Amino acid sequence: MSSTPPAADPSQSADGVRQGEARRTRRLRRPGAVGVSSFLLYALVFAAALIPVPYLLQMPGPVVNTLEPYEGRELITISGTQTYEAEGQLDMLTVAVAGGPGRSVYASNALGSLVKGSETVVPSEAFYPLETTREQVSDQNSADMVSSQDEATAAALGELGIDFSTVVGVSSVAPDSAAAGAVEPGDLLLKVDGTPVEGSPEGMAAVKDAVASSDGPVALTVQRDGEEHEVEVEPHDVDGTRAIGVVMGLGYSFPFDVEFAVEGIGGPSAGTIFALTIIDKLTEGNLTGGVPIAGTGAIDAEGVISPIGGARQKVVAAEAAGAEYFLSPADNCAEVLSAPGAEDLTVVRVDDLHEARAAVEDIAADEDGALPSCAPAHS
């Protein structure tokens, strides 16, 4: 009987063994390759998340009720005249900022802020030139806050019909200048060589002319901390012109003292709330009637209210603090109405301090039916 040998099993042949091993090797290597790729992808994403980016993040900041003590002190103290107890909730709103000169913001931070409706991501260059330092930012914020306090006080007194005078003040003194050590920032310039200095742009020009034309020391009468001082300054030659090295600005001389305890808070946007708080302290009764009101807006001595930055974040902060009404500069209305939480607030448009005061009084009297509105007109 003849027999046919069984066919060879390819898996047992030398070639078959190599092919089987190759197939198994490929099957084993694929998961490893995917794992390496995934690891590299995660590593790249992680690394990208830690890359600094030239952006600022604006976030809702602390809310401060100006009618209550702030960090253990009255936020606004008035002395030298009759004042009245002021109670209620009149909220000053702030914006917390991450990034900018001297502070890094990473891609992960920016991406996270984009997801949140309450935060805004903006290019740093939109606010600060590239060469700006952190110290310069801090100094400017502090200067803006001091200016807003003076402007708010002037606006409040003007609204109440209380007289005050405009004066020429010293904004800054250059280091190693002629005036350094003799004149200080915050001094009021009352006289130059015995001639009274008018509180106006013309008065500032007169001081510059007197210094430039002098052929010896210049006698200045300055007011500092309520007291007058006589100082002599020998001008230096600066680019062919005699100068004493001070930057002047218009300031105010009030008939009583108004002090602010707002350390750590900068910028001009609290002016409107400051002015309303001063009015509340100088008039009988509670201006707000106990209704929780928040607001924002820069203000000038004439009482004109100007738009501010970070309105979106301030709406979020106001709603979270329990405010029922939000006072908004007219040019901020669109941003305010689109902010998360705006639907829970009655947004009131304010163009000047007189209008803002009237609105708060109407709210307190529960007569808010005719308040100036930010809501778009319907056709």
Automatic annotation (TrEMBL):
SMART domains assigned to the protein according to its UniProt record, in alphabetical order: PDZ
Domain of life: Bacteria
Keyword Membrane found: yes
UniProt keyword annotations, A-Z: Membrane, Transmembrane, Transmembrane helix
SUPFAM superfamilies: PDZ domain-like (SSF50156), Ribosomal protein S5 domain 2-like (SSF54211)
Transmembrane segments: 33-57
Pfam families assigned to the protein according to its UniProt record, in alphabetical order: Lon_C (PF05362), PDZ_6 (PF17820)
Species, as recorded: Brevibacterium salitolerans
Coiled coil location: none
Domain (PDZ) ranges: 145-226
Region Disordered: start-end pairs: 1-26
Ranges of compositional bias, category Polar residues: 1-14
InterPro entries in the record: Lon_proteolytic, Lon_Prtase, PDZ, PDZ_6, PDZ_sf, Ribosomal_Su5_D2-typ_SF, Ribsml_uS5_D2-typ_fold_subgr
Protein name: PDZ domain-containing protein
